[in-house]
Amino acid sequence: MSTFTVPVVLMHPEHRDRSVEANLLVDTGSSYILLPPDVVSGLGLATPYERRAMLASGERVTYRIGEVRIQVGDEACTTIFLAGPPGCRALLGAVVLEQLALAADPRTGRLIPGPPALL
Questions:
Q1: CA separation for the pair 112, 31 (Å, rounded)
Q2: What is the pLDDT of residue 2?
């Protein structure tokens, strides 16, 4: 399977004038967005809670979590992110793809409209 990045705008959920453009690696094996510490601090994002997670390697880790507003194309939503360790790659996980009704097309390296959400 190929990997690809997508351009997004990340915003503070309450102070949307605090924003940054970024390229996130689409990772449908991840649940949430993973953000490097410099992005988290640059936007002034709060990380009031912790969440345990398992990496693809099987290693168990604990990351701080918070909320971020993300815009992908014309669609936007507020979602949970994990504050990753220094040097980590910014990832776009499956939860936000579901929230925005998008799907990854690995053949074209693009996000495409996904199936309608189940209610």
A1: 18
A2: 63
Tell me the two tokens of residue 42: 């640059």
Architecture category of domain 5-111 in CATH = Beta Barrel (2.40)
- Estimate to the nearest angstrom the gap between the alpha carbon of 40 and the chain centroid: 12
Spatial separation of the C-alpha atoms in residues 77 and 2, rounded to whole Å: 26
Tell me if 37 sits within 8 A of 85, measured CB to CB. Answer: yes
Which ranges of the chain would DSSP assign to H, the alpha helix?
Answer: 37-43, 94-99
Give 6-55 pLDDT, tens digit per residue.
999 999 999 999 999 999 999 989 999 999 999 999 999 999 999 999 98
C-alpha span between 20 and 39 (Å, rounded): 8
Q: What percent of the chain has pLDDT over 90?
A: 87
Q: CA quadruple 16, 19, 25, 31: dihedral positive or negative?
A: negative
Instruction: Locate 5 and state its tokens.
Output: 């990045």
Q: Domain coordinates of the chain in residue numbers? A: 5-111
> Token pair for residue 111?
């996000």
pTM: 0.91
Can you read off the two tokens belonging to residue 113?
Answer: 């409209």
